[in-house]
Amino acid sequence: MARRSAPLLRRLVSSPAPVPAPSAPLPGHGGARRTVTYMPRPGDGNPRAVTLIPGDGIGPLVTGAVQQVMEVIHAPVYFETYEVRGDMPTVPPAVIESIRRNKVCLKGGLATPVGGGVSSLNMQLRKELDLYASLVNCSNFPGLPTRHQDVDIVVIRENTEGEYSGLEHEVVPGVVESLKVITKFCSERIAKYAFEYAYLNNRKKVTAVHKANIMKLADGLFLESCREVASKYPGIQYNEIIVDNCCMQLVAKPEQFDVMVTPNLYGNLVANTAAGIAGGTGVMPGGNVGQDHAVFEQGASAGNVGNENILEQKKANPVALLLSSAMMLRHLQFPSFADRLETAVKRVIAEGKYRTKDLGGTSTTQEVTDAVIANLD
Amino acid sequence: MARRSAPLLRRLVSSPAPATSAPLPGHGGARRTVTYMPRPGDGNPRAVTLIPGDGIGPLVTGAVQQVMEVMHAPVYFETYEVRGDMPTVPPAVIESIRRNKVCLKGGLATPVGGGVSSLNMQLRKELDLYASLVNCSNFPGLPTRHQDVDIVVIRENTEGEYSGLEHEVVPGVVESLKVITKFCSERIAKYAFEYAYLNNRKKVTAVHKANIMKLADGLFLESCREIASKYPGIQYNEIIVDNCCMQLVAKPEQFDVMVTPNLYGNLVANTAAGIAGGTGVMPGGNVGQDHAVFEQGASAGNVGNENILEQKKANPVALLLSSAMMLRHLQFPSFADRLETAVKRVIAEGKYRTKDLGGISTTQEVTDAVIANLD
Predict the structure, then answer these.
(1) Min CA distance, A9 vs chain B (Å)?
(2) Model confidence over A285-315: pLDDT tens digits?
(3) Dmax of chain A from CA atoms?
(4) I want to staple A278 with a disulfide (CB 3.0 to 4.6 A). Which of A151, B148, B222, B371 is the partner?
(5) What is the residue-averaged pLDDT of chain A?
(6) Cβ neighbours, 10 Å, residue B225
(7) Contact state of B356 with A3 under an 8 Å Cβ cutoff
(8) What is the spatial distance between Cα A327 and Cα B176, in angstroms, rounded to a whole number?
(9) How far is CA A247 from CA A67, A116, A241, B78, B339, in A?
(10) Could you tell me if A226 and A237 are in contact, meaning their C-beta atoms sit under 8 angstroms apart?
(11) Pairing between β-strand B283-287 and β-strand B292-296 as defined by DSSP bridges
(12) Rounded Cα gap, residues A24 and A20, in angstroms
């Protein structure tokens, strides 16, 4: 049929006729519509259970936002909510049980009390479930002005050992030792995850962040593992950078970084820096991934969780957790819903009318959530 | 840190600053910025059975293999020789597909006339690939008479008029059986609504001829209505197949997902493919509970065409897009994105088009253009 119309097509092609755009966006949409079709298997639409931990501080506020949006999209997930407060001694076993069963968890935020004796519940969760990789996705949002352009960094940080092992003891009164543990096993698997992530997401470069000139053995072991894994991925560039130089480069020329793989402490700092230059910790999504489980939460939440001011005025930024829940939807293999959610959130950011205080606006959490819901298609 | 810069941000926001997200140099259009969440171990290579087939089959599967090589996609192909005039599909091939769960097929020409049952149908019955999808939508840059076409035809693949049950009652009189079962109708309806739900489609249309074939197509419609009641968020309507064909060529933008029995589906899919740009560019696949076979969406009579074969002008676009669907099915979405973007860019530029799109390029030239456009 198309072959007989070849002369007609030739005429259409040669004469510069005003061909109307065949994929004109539907009225009411602020921008281009993503035209991607996914191939579901039969049974893929069955709803999945996800453990939800609102937490404390601003946690319940932002998880409430996520729940509202999930309702509206009719996403095939349903939440099992558990109460966990930052000052509990341990994470309740019922919660761990639930996460082991559901494999996926969404966490608002757990404020860790400052000072001795109480180990961080966040760390406990990560160790129990062996969530060894923490990802923070830092990139510029169109429409959100920042001092740095072309930022597109993913910080993959080892999550279970390093300086945050929690192994401290008081040698003699007034003298405390804190152990930093680096093992080949953990370094290898975080390097493997980083390179696999880069391979599967078409990233060109992986940078290892270290301080091996000083900590020759510990970070040296980390670097060795990274180099070993790098040799198996010839298509991906690999380089190393010392952490102090790295922080300086991040604020001077952030566009040189792509995927960064780091041990625990450096990763915390680098992730928060990268989040800050790309728009603030209120908008960066992230997650903690292990072999069998995954916990999604705000990417780099430096000190926001317990902030009283934000809590009282209900001005916490829900964007980070909304984007993290979009990553969760992708992890659960519901890519179409993730697309819609991300598109709506990015549109709200680009329009700039509804922004919470950390982005320079005056809206409340609920107003931003309503804007996202209004922009869903 | 960001809070202290609020005054600075306010100044930047109020003054109209230039756009900050310029596409990277060398890319013909906007770059998709989607990040996927892999599980550890997701990058392990997958085996896929490859059946080049005959006619133009080897030509287009060769194109797919080249592109997969360049992208370093984590798939490797196990190639099997199957020709359209074999009596049955060799058991080694079926064995391989059962093991790998996914197959990519070039094309098997079915000989006209008595005695030899179609190998395509055999394959679908053996593996119980009950849903056949054809994705028909306009490509930007490819002019057609119809705009705003975005139709997915989901067609029941195992029963209906194509059961192959025919017999000669008396010399000169032949009966052909059309079989419709509740089981098959229900599962194709379930698949169609689930597909619509998972792909954010708004409407499902059932195509039938129940005014004439009251019991057979009536059963099909009943199943569709039952399933429709479970998806209140998706519109459902029914249309008689002759009216449907007329509406397709008059106002195709009214259709979204169409679920049909076997014969109507074949015709509707080829019509929809034709109005959206031709059977040479539409991707498709056959999906079952456990297996999936991907091939050109609606290949009406192209496979055995001697002319195209001799001049090597077969259009590889359909099979390239089908292999992108295959990559999505295998949960390699980033590679599928890159492949689809490159193919759409080549179509939009319009420099390398095979004869069925009005151009003069060969299969190899189009393949090279796609490879050049990969990022």
Answers:
(1) 6
(2) 888 999 989 999 887 765 555 555 666 667 7
(3) 93
(4) A151
(5) 82
(6) 13
(7) yes
(8) 52
(9) 36, 29, 10, 48, 36
(10) no
(11) antiparallel
(12) 8
Residue B288: DSSP 8-state: -
Q: What pLDDT does A21 receive?
A: 37
pLDDT at position A1 is 44
Quick one: which H or E segment has residue B98? helix B91-100
Q: Who among B191, B334, B357 is closest to A200 (CB)?
A: B334
Supply the pTM of this predicted model.
0.80
Nearest CB to A44 within list B194, B233, B358 = B194
Are the CB atoms for B218 and B212 separated by under 8 Å? no
Q: With an 8 Å Cβ cutoff, are A327 and B292 in contact? A: no
- List of residues 6+ apart from A286 with CB closer than 8 A: A134, A135, A136, A137, A271, A296, A297, A298, A299, A300, A320, A324, A327
- Interface membership of A197 toward B (CB under 8 Å): yes
| Shortest distance, CA B166 to any CA of chain A (angstroms) | 30
B51 residue type, one letter: I
Element housing B121 (H / E): helix B119-126
- Is A330 touching B (CB cutoff 8 A)? yes
Listed in sequence order, the DSSP H helices in chain A are 6-14, 59-73, 93-102, 121-128, 184-200, 218-231, 243-252, 264-278, 308-313, 319-331, 335-351, 365-374
Calculate Rg over the CA atoms of chain A: 23
CB burial of A60-79 (b: ≥16 within 10 Å; e: otherwise) equals bbbbbbbbebbeebebbbeb
H-assigned helices in A281-362: 308-313, 319-331, 335-351
Query: In this structure, which amino acid lies at residue A101?
Result: R
Does pLDDT of B266 surpass 90? no
The strand order across the sheet containing B46-53 reads B75-79, B46-53, B102-107, B292-296, B283-287, B131-137, B150-156, B257-260, B203-208, B235-240
DSSP-derived 3-state class of residue A322: helix
Residues 94-123 of B with CB under 8 A from A: none
Classify strands B75-79 and B46-53 as parallel, antiparallel or unpaired.
Answer: parallel
B89 CA to chain A: closest CA distance, Å? 25
**What's the CA gap between B328 and B319, in Å, rounded?**
14
pLDDT bucket at B239, cuts 50 / 70 / 90 = very high
**Looking at this predicted complex, what is its ipTM?**
0.73
* Cβ contact B53:B319 at 8 Å: no
Least confident of A313-317, B38-42, B111-115: B111-115
The count of other CB atoms within 10 Å of the CB of residue B24 is: 9
CB–CB contact B34 A276 (8 Å): no
Largest CA distance in chain B: 92
Question: Looking at CA atoms only, how far is residue A288 from chain B in angstroms?
Answer: 10
Count CB pairs under 8 A between chains A and B. Answer: 182
| 3-state SS, residue A250 | helix
Lowest-pLDDT range of A114-123, A162-171, A325-334, B43-52? A114-123
Cβ atoms of B370 and B346 within 8 Å: the answer is yes
Q: Is pLDDT above 70 for B293?
A: yes
Q: What is the rounded distance in angstroms from the CA atom of residue B93 to the CA atom of residue B91?
A: 5
CA distance A375 to A348: 7
